[in-house]
From TrEMBL:
<keyword id="KW-0808">Transferase</keyword>
<dbReference type="GO" id="GO:0004335">
    <property type="term" value="F:galactokinase activity"/>
</dbReference>
<protein>
    <recommendedName>
        <fullName>Galactokinase</fullName>
        <ecNumber>2.7.1.6</ecNumber>
    </recommendedName>
</protein>
<dbReference type="GO" id="GO:0006012">
    <property type="term" value="P:galactose metabolic process"/>
</dbReference>
<dbReference type="InterPro" id="IPR006204">
    <property type="entry name" value="GHMP_kinase_N_dom"/>
</dbReference>
<feature type="domain" description="Galactokinase N-terminal">
    <location>
        <begin position="36"/>
        <end position="75"/>
    </location>
</feature>
<dbReference type="InterPro" id="IPR020568">
    <property type="entry name" value="Ribosomal_Su5_D2-typ_SF"/>
</dbReference>
<dbReference type="GO" id="GO:0046872">
    <property type="term" value="F:metal ion binding"/>
</dbReference>
<keyword id="KW-0460">Magnesium</keyword>
<keyword id="KW-0418">Kinase</keyword>
<dbReference type="InterPro" id="IPR014721">
    <property type="entry name" value="Ribsml_uS5_D2-typ_fold_subgr"/>
</dbReference>
<feature type="domain" description="GHMP kinase N-terminal">
    <location>
        <begin position="112"/>
        <end position="202"/>
    </location>
</feature>
<dbReference type="Pfam" id="PF08544">
    <property type="entry name" value="GHMP_kinases_C"/>
</dbReference>
<dbReference type="Pfam" id="PF10509">
    <property type="entry name" value="GalKase_gal_bdg"/>
</dbReference>
<feature type="domain" description="GHMP kinase C-terminal">
    <location>
        <begin position="323"/>
        <end position="403"/>
    </location>
</feature>
<dbReference type="InterPro" id="IPR006206">
    <property type="entry name" value="Mevalonate/galactokinase"/>
</dbReference>
<dbReference type="InterPro" id="IPR013750">
    <property type="entry name" value="GHMP_kinase_C_dom"/>
</dbReference>
Length: 425
């Protein structure tokens, strides 16, 4: 079976689809008013190039925004009622009243959409009132490509503009929107998330990867730097393959990893594993310091904790090395670091599944410079850094191997570093 590539929907098409869903759902009257107080906003999914499970350890990561976006047509109301609809199930309108809403009250997909309004009000943005909103998306759902952040960030931008919060036009303002998007996921939807996805969706710049430093207490300016990531100039493509293995972050595995990292930091008497990573890389003999630290963790918390810590501290360092390698156009080294990252996620952090490992193995055998899972793991997608024109044959080889092994058919897309969310109508 030929493997299918998911194309990104262009802004004008996305705006058209979102506004027609809006008017079909909420009526002609609302469609008219879209032009006054409402509009259409879009925010992207992401792939993380390297730096996985580091964000909640105050570490480093390196995402790019995908050209694939979630579009929301939104129109503010005078009361505090909310109605939301999605093209996934256009017959079902989810409703809530912001005045009587508590953490966990909204269930299913609407928790992400409505949760952002709830979180903004909790943060003191009481200008946020009720609204009607219609979502359409071309970010594949549940693929580890941050479809949830694309949704929360698109509506965060919409609420900021529709209620004149003034947060969408500056990086400092966007950081406030990111906090609300994270709070919606954590507290309304009950899904753990560390901030990587939302930062990517609202802070990436076209043509660049976002070097994100998740250390606490950094100013917005200190926390990001744009890293030119020109694939075409290097005759490269970034292939994304969605393995279509089921992917869930709220089933306890992600939270368990997070908890163990916290316990390890406590046992080592530091605020986060970032501090451990920094003291290793700043020491004179970093290999020896790494080994000594891991021996200590093993004594304090056992073998599993030691392996979790080994992943996090080596991964933080790999982000630094990858940035340097790509900057020097040492693509072989950059690819090798991606491979190391995947192996560490497979062997030490234990968040891969057979579909991810198989896809990565095939991509490497077919000549990728490097291949790794991207996102939280436990299903989802892989990325592979490949020569121009190799993306399709490699995706096909993965699909053929999946068919042989009886896995579900995978889907592919080509990732180019795209821009963050914005108002488009
Ligand atoms: C998910 C989370 C992110 C991050 C990644 C792993 O995507 O939402 O915050 O922790 O997993 O890097």
């Amino acid at each position: 079976m030929p493997v299918s590539f998911i194309e990104a929907v262009k802004n004008d098409d996305g705006a058209r689809q979102a506004t027609s869903l809006f008017s079909e759902t909420f009526g002609e009257y609302c469609r008219m008013r879209l032009q006054d107080n409402g509009g259409v906003w879009a925010s992207p999914g992401r792939v993380n190039i390297i730096g996985e499970h580091t964000d909640y350890n105050e570490g480093l990561c390196l995402p790019i925004a995908l050209p694939h976006r979630t579009f929301v047509a939104l129109h503010p109301r005078r009361d505090t009622k909310v109605r939301v609809v999605s093209s996934v199930n256009p017959m079902s309108i989810e409703q809530a009243d912001l005045d009587h809403l508590h953490a966990g009250d909204v269930k299913g997909w609407a928790a992400y959409a409505i949760g952002v309004a709830w979180a903004l009000r909790k943060a003191g943005y009481l200008k946020v009132r009720g609204f009607d909103a219609a979502f359409v998306s071309c970010v594949p759902l549940g693929s580890g490509l941050s479809s949830s952040a694309a949704m929360t960030c698109s509506i965060a931008l919409a609420l900021s503009d529709a209620f004149d919060l003034g947060l969408s036009d500056s990086d400092v303002g966007r950081v406030q929107l990111i906090h609300a998007a994270i709070m919606a996921e954590n507290e309304m939807a009950g899904a753990s998330t560390g901030g990587l996805d939302q930062n990517a969706s609202l802070r990436c710049v076209e043509g660049n990867a976002l070097l994100l430093d998740c250390k606490k207490d950094l100013t917005p300016l200190q926390s990001v730097s744009q890293q030119p990531f020109d694939l075409a100039a290097n005759n490269l493509e970034l292939l994304v393959v969605d393995t279509c293995a089921p992917h869930q972050l709220n089933d306890g595995q992600y939270a368990a990893r997070r908890m163990m990292c916290q316990e390890a930091a406590q046992a080592l008497n530091v605020s986060s594993l970032r501090a451990v990573a920094d003291s290793i890389s700043n020491s004179e003999d970093s290999q020896q310091t790494l080994q000594d630290t891991l021996n200590r963790v093993q004594k304090l918390g056992g073998e599993t904790m030691m392996r979790r810590v080994r992943h996090v501290v080596t991964e933080i360092n790999r982000v630094r090395e990858f940035v340097e390698a790509f900057h020097k156009t040492d693509i072989t080294l950059a690819g090798e670091l991606m491979n190391q990252s995947h192996n560490s996620l497979r062997d030490d952090y234990e968040v891969t599944v057979p579909e991810l490992d198989t896809a990565v193995d095939v991509a490497r055998n077919e000549g990728a410079y490097g291949a790794r899972m991207t996102g939280g793991g436990f299903g989802g997608s892989i990325i592979a850094l490949v020569d121009t024109n190799r993306a399709k044959p490699i995706a096909q080889a993965i699909a053929d191997e999946f068919a042989k092994r009886g896995f579900a058919a995978p889907r592919a897309l080509s990732a180019v570093p795209s821009s963050s969310g914005e108002r488009i109508l």
